Amino acid sequence: MEIAVERLPEEKLKPLYNDPAQLGFGKIFTDYMFTMKHQDGKGWVEPKISPYSSFSIDPAAVVLHYSQEIFEGLKAYAAKDGRILLFRPEQNAKRMYRSAERLCMEPFPEEYFLKAVETLVNLEKRWIPRAPETSLYIRPTLVGLGAALGVHPASEYLFYIILSPVAAYYKEGFKPVKLAVEDYYVRSVIGGVGDAKTGGNYAASLMAGAKAEEKGFSQVLWLDAKEKKYVEEVGSMNMFFVFGKKLVTPNLGGSILPGITRASVLELAKSLGYQTEERQISIDEVVKGLDDGTLTEAFGSGTAAVISPVGSLYYQGKDYLVNNNQVGKVTQELYTKLVDIQFGNAKDPFGWSWDIGKF
Ligand code: COI
Fold first, then answer.
1. Among the residues of 124-257, which ranges form H helices?
2. How much distance in Å is there from the Cα of 250 to the middle of ligand 1?
């Protein structure tokens, strides 16, 4: 794949932001984006890096009517020694391929995904923020474009990547977040698209999320759709419950996202001597553990959320404090170890970190 690059004159480049308070999450976008199209009979064509700009698409495009859309999220980190690092990007490329298959889309080849990410991030390296806990968020996206109102897979696809310098996902930063357990609305069902990274899952979560936010919660914790009994995920993160030296996370039963941070936390925790269990965990087991003190900590994991401590869970009219609303030792340990690998501050015995360039 030969990527054409259309450069902007120096004076047209945007001013940089580095202050975490200004960054927030996903509000600022860099100067360039990557695009590539898929057309019937031609395959993937026109790989291009061009100035970040709006698209013009047909009002009958399949994505606008039938939500044929998938995306990924990964980050580029500025290591102190000047290296530019990615965290397990091949896993994002693979997951995007699987999401495309599930949504009946033309999958984007993994080697193109990796080359496009590396080339764009290197071109935009001045945008990788340096303040602690900030990074350059990478958002690869695939949409179905062909103009047609019949419910069929699109005839044309657009793959693109945009970049956004970011700080913490939650306004709380690395402080415990308040979750509300949702026992009416559901995010997804087994056999649905809950394990694909498609926008529809996030759209389906908005109403419950907005109602929870109105009441002062950061997010909702989803339960399974069938029995409203088992914990699923938070939408922006997978969940972990800590019982002393044991970590329990809901198993990937088909309705939750197979998080890359989730998989990494499981491996990291095992290497640190924790016992890990991927299994169904009921909300009753969680509240019982909080009541009798055996559930000692809870946290979420995700690319955007990293590792986010959970300080309280609201369920059926009652607020349950988790570790007295403090960041627990296990959460802190896993967070520090993970972030140290991501930022290149510690040895990476897992081979997760990809060194893709220098400043
Ligand atoms: C990510 O963690 O990359 C996601 O896509 C979650 C999204 C809510 C920001």
1. 199-214
2. 18
Cα 327 to Cα 55, 90, 220, 296, 311: the distances in Å are: 43, 31, 19, 11, 8
Residue with the nearest Cα to atom 9 of ligand 1?
A: 304
Q: How many CB atoms lie within 10 A of CB 9?
A: 6
Supply the DSSP symbol for 256. Answer: S
Q: Can you give the pLDDT of all 359 residues of the chain as single tens digits?
A: 999 999 999 999 999 976 878 899 999 999 999 999 999 889 999 999 999 999 999 999 999 999 999 999 999 999 999 999 999 999 999 999 999 999 999 999 999 999 999 999 999 999 999 998 899 999 999 999 999 999 999 999 999 999 999 998 887 778 899 999 999 999 999 999 999 999 999 999 999 999 999 999 999 999 999 999 999 999 899 999 999 999 999 999 899 999 999 999 999 999 999 999 999 999 999 999 999 999 999 999 999 999 999 999 999 999 999 999 999 999 999 999 999 999 999 999 999 999 999 98
Q: Residue 50 has what DSSP assignment?
A: E
CA distance 231 to 290: 15
- Run of H or E including 300: strand 297-302
* Distance, CA of 107 to CA of 327 (rounded, Å): 40
Q: Which of 260, 263, 262, 237 is nearest to 177 (CA)?
A: 237
CATH entry 3.40.630.30 includes domain 4-166 = no
Centre of ligand 1 to C-alpha 273, Å, is 28
Assigned fold of 177-342 = D-amino Acid Aminotransferase; Chain A, domain 2 (3.20.10)
Domains in the chain: boundaries = 4-166, 177-342
What are the residue ranges of helices labelled H in 103-182? 110-123
Q: If you ran DSSP here, which 8-state letter would residue 237 be given? A: S
Distance CA 230, CA 187 (A): 13
Q: Is 303 in the pocket of ligand 1 (CB under 6 A)?
A: yes
Model confidence, pTM: 0.96
Q: Contact, 84 vs 121, CB < 8 A?
A: yes
For residue 238, report the distance from its CA to the centre of ligand 1, in Å: 11
